[in-house]
Specification:
The protein is an alpha+beta fold. It contains four helices and five strands; from the N terminus they run ββββααβαα.
Length: about 130
C-alpha cells in the first residue's frame, strides 16, 4: 500500500496526516505522539479511531501539525486519521460516523470588532 494523505482541522489547528503500513508508530512533528501530547486524555483522543477499528498496530502515521493549542491539535489529528482510514477502507464509514469522528467541528474564534474591547463585549454603560 502506498501512503495515504488526509487533512484534519479544528479551530486554528491543521493536521496533515500521512498513513502507511507499519507497526503502529505515530510521529507528530518528528516526535512521538506520547511525547508531543503530554496529557493522557489527548493521547486517548488521538488514538480513538484506531482503537475503534482495531488498527492500532497496522499503520505508521506521520503528522505535520501547525496552529492552535494542544486540544485543537489533538482533535484535528483525530479527524485527519479518521479521513485517512476512510480512504483505505470506505466500509468503516458507518462505524466512524456513529462515534462522531467524521464531523468537522465548525466552531471558530469570532473576530474582534473595532471600537470594542472583545468580539461581543461592550464598554460599560454610564447613564450620567
Amino acid at each position: 500500500m502506498e501512503t495515504v494523505n488526509a487533512i484534519g482541522r479544528r479551530k486554528a489547528a491543521v493536521a496533515r496526516v500521512y498513513l502507511s503500513d507499519g507497526k503502529g508508530k505515530i510521529t507528530v512533528n518528528d516526535r512521538d505522539y506520547k511525547e508531543y501530547f503530554g496529557a493522557e486524555t489527548l493521547q486517548y483522543v488521538v488514538t480513538q479511531p484506531l482503537v475503534l477499528l482495531n488498527a492500532s498496530e497496522k499503520y505508521d502515521i506521520q503528522v505535520n501539525l501547525v496552529g492552535g493549542g494542544v486540544k485543537g491539535q489533538a482533535e484535528a489529528l483525530r479527524l485527519g486519521i479518521t479521513r485517512a482510514l476512510l480512504q483505505i477502507d470506505p466500509e468503516n464509514r458507518s462505524v466512524l460516523k456513529a462515534n462522531g469522528f467524521l464531523t468537522r467541528d465548525p466552531r471558530e474564534v469570532e473576530r474582534k470588532k473595532p471600537g470594542r474591547p472583545k468580539a461581543r463585549k461592550r464598554f460599560q454603560f454610564s447613564k450620567r
